[in-house]
Automatic annotation (TrEMBL):
GO molecular function terms attached to this record: glycerol-3-phosphate dehydrogenase (NAD+) activity; glycerol-3-phosphate dehydrogenase (NADP+) activity; NAD binding
Subcellular location: Cytoplasm
PANTHER family the record matches: GLYCEROL-3-PHOSPHATE DEHYDROGENASE, GLYCEROL-3-PHOSPHATE DEHYDROGENASE [NAD(+)] 2, CHLOROPLASTIC
Protein name per the record: Glycerol-3-phosphate dehydrogenase [NAD(P)+]
Length: 331
């Protein structure tokens, strides 16, 4: 995001946790751990001091893995000005509470109207090369969404706004689970038909969860839904997809994350989405299948067979009237 924001502001301050990363970014203008060939703009500076990072800022952009967002916001709360706007990039659903990331940020930082969430098909590997991308900025407050739309929009990046922040964030959390399923299918040697089936039934599954959380299922047709689902299920850059392939090859989640130093958000999301679905009676067969493989020791072949041997149904899309979320014959 620094490459998108830096042309629009005087200075971007990056918070990093290690002095090694901070020194490399300040001295060489490169991140030594991620996108190592990318040169940071001259007006980007780094610090490991959170208080310094947000001193006198107009806005903060939060991009920690979802599991650390609450802790990061808690640490930030006493340093961030009360009127500073907050944009959340993290994609996930909190375990136990089933809160979306903008809700976690708002709980810890106060004033939900200053919080927005950004989601869409946005692999940093392509954005930093100036390849055309787009995303949606969602907030319950139109001014906050418009503020970040203005901050991020540029010649190669188009930002749309939405007031359906729950729908946008829910899409971002659940599509990662579907992408793991696609990676597994790809690793098993399945073809394009299989991926198309998983993605299409995946968007229906996402739609049911969006509806249950009070979002608009039509948001699934947009950049945060269909757009991000397509890129995450098909791109070579996707961690969730490539983890699914690695799993078939015998690698564990911990080993994959340790080798890549990157987060696989679909794994914890499968836990929280399944918890939520069981609590609310939502059918999430793809999520349940991924969860069973990751956390219940179910063999991959058996999970795939389980999906295929379900009772034949009418095709519902997950985007019908909201009360269809509770109908039995829905998926
Ligand atoms: N909104 C959007 O357009 C996009 C959002 N994302 C989301 O952003 C979040 C971060 O993804 P990436 O930047 O790709 O991460 P990454 O997978 O490249 O790396 C994870 C990073 O988390 C850091 N980290 C580990 N423990 C931490 C802690 N306790 N506190 C803060 N940071 C910690 C690691 O140092 C590492 O740099 C994820 O939730 C991901 O799904 C990712 C791509 C696009
Ligand atoms: O959300 C993303 C792209 O929009 C990143 O997806 P992965 O975490 O699977 O790489």
């Amino acid at each position: 995001m620094t490459g998108l924001v830096s042309p629009a502001v005087d200075e971007v301050v990056l918070w990093a946790r290690t002095s090694q990363a901070v020194d490399a970014m300040n001295l060489e203008h490169r991140n030594p751990n991620h996108l190592v060939d990318y040169t940071l703009a001259p007006n980007v500076v780094a610090t490991s001091d959170l208080a310094v990072a947000v001193r006198d800022v107009d806005a903060a952009i939060l991009a920690t893995p979802s599991a650390y967002l609450r802790e990061t916001c808690r640490n930030l709360a006493s340093h961030l000005a009360k009127n500073a706007r907050v944009l959340v990039l993290s994609k996930g659903m909190e375990r136990g509470t089933h809160l979306l990331m903008h809700e976690v940020a708002a709980q810890e930082l106060g004033n939900p109207t200053r919080v927005a969430a950004l989601s869409g098909p946005n692999h940093a590997e392509e954005i930093c090369k100036g390849m055309v991308s787009a995303a949606v900025v969602a907030s319950e407050d139109a001014e906050t969404a418009a503020y970040f739309q203005g901050l991020l929009s540029g010649p190669t990046f188009r930002a749309y706004v939405s007031d359906d922040v729950r729908g946008v964030e829910c899409c971002g959390a659940v599509k990662n689970v579907v992408a793991i399923a696609c990676g597994i299918a790809s690793g098993m040697g399945m073809g394009d038909n299989t991926l198309a089936v998983l993605m299409t039934r995946g968007i229906a599954e996402i739609g049911r969860v969006v509806a249950a959380l009070g979002g608009n299922p039509m948001t699934c047709m947009g950049l945060a839904g269909m757009g991000d689902l397509v890129v995450t299920c098909t791109s070579e850059h996707s961690r969730n997809r490539s983890f699914g392939r690695a799993l078939v090859a015998g690698e564990t989640l911990d080993a994959y994350q340790a080798r890549t130093h990157m987060v696989v958000e679909g794994a914890p999301a499968s836990e929280s989405v399944l918890e939520l679905a069981q609590e609310r009676g939502i059918e999430v067969p793809i999520t349940a299948g991924v969860h069973s493989v990751l956390y219940e020791g179910r063999p991959i072949d058996e999970a795939m067979e389980g999906l295929l041997t379900r009772v034949p149904r009418t095709e519902f899309y997950g985007m019908e009237e909201r009360d269809t979320a509770s109908k039995e014959n829905q998926c």
